[in-house]
Specification:
281 residues, alpha/beta, TIM Barrel, 10 helices, 32% helix, globular
Length: 281
């Protein structure tokens, strides 16, 4: 068993290419398998899709942090290749899927788009051997089942549902990690972590509940380089915190080990003390 660690860069690069590249470097050093960004080609259209968020002034936030030049995808992809991590990028408009398709190793759907069946199906013409990783932070029981039904064109191993809670931060008592086990047959194989960044053990807890994909928000080591009003920074881990998070998560994988009973090397020296069946006392 292994776990696929996704470092969610989010908006913590402040919409600046040099900072986003630095995020890739730091996440790679911390032990991530992939670094995921967020991008939109049209902040106004994205805001309209989000309904009431359009009225709340989110259009300016999307434009400032997520509507960066399309040419950056190749630059960021190249930097990921240089550092041995996969490039991922969540998009929110159906027409943007084709733009990121040449660069992403796996596709990511946020909790806000999860219940848009047309958006899920829009990935169909772009996915070959890639995976569709779908967060379920706003989905109930019936909606989780509906996602699997909507994506019936995918092979079972290509659909990955991530259990999560779309509260930032998520209280520990609202993690409800048993959902990973309950919906395993529907593709629930991971966890998107929104807990307070000080909780570096929560990824390990998710692995013990059955997660083999773990996503968590990360930021730069120097918080002063990003805007004070950056929406993703408060719930993102420092590189030091994320390094410990990755270590604990991978340690949980080692602790789980294998499911078959066998005599381990560490216990083999004790075998000579075992009482044999039918031996005299």
């Amino acid at each position: 068993m292994s776990v696929y660690m996704i470092a969610e860069a989010g908006a913590c690069g402040d919409g600046k290419l040099e900072l986003m590249m630095q995020q890739i470097t730091e996440a790679s050093v911390a032990g991530a398998d992939a670094v995921k960004f967020q991008w939109t080609s049209d902040a106004r259209m994205m805001s309209r899709r989000r309904g009431s968020a359009y009225k709340d002034g989110y259009e300016d936030i999307y434009r400032r942090y997520l509507q960066w030049p399309v040419e950056w995808h190749r630059t960021l992809w190249n930097h990921c290749e240089l550092h041995g991590v996969d490039y991922m990028c969540a998009v929110y408009l159906p027409q943007d899927i084709a733009t990121v398709a040449p660069y992403v190793r796996h596709y990511k759907v946020s909790s806000f788009e999860t219940n848009d069946a047309e958006f899920l199906r829009a990935h169909r013409s772009h996915i070959s051997n890639a995976r569709l990783i779908v967060s379920t932070g706003l989905s109930n029981d019936a909606e989780c089942r509906a996602i699997t039904a909507t994506c019936d064109w995918l092979a079972p191993e290509q659909l990955v549902l991530l259990h999560c809670n779309s509260a930032y931060p998520t209280p520990l008592h609202d993690m409800h990690l048993l959902a990973i086990r309950r919906y395993a047959d529907y593709g629930m194989r991971g966890y998107s972590d929104h807990t307070d960044p000080s909780h570096t053990m929560t990824g390990a807890y998710a692995v013990l509940a059955g997660a083999v994909y773990v996503e968590a928000h990360v930021r730069l080591s120097d918080r002063s380089v990003v805007s004070t009003d950056n929406p993703d920074v408060p719930h993102a881990m420092t590189p030091m915190q994320y390094t410990e998070y990755v270590r604990c998560t991978r340690e949980a994988v080692n602790i789980l080990g294998v499911s078959t009973k066998h005599l381990t090397l560490s216990a083999s020296n004790m075998k000579r003390y075992e009482v044999q069946k039918h031996s005299a006392i």
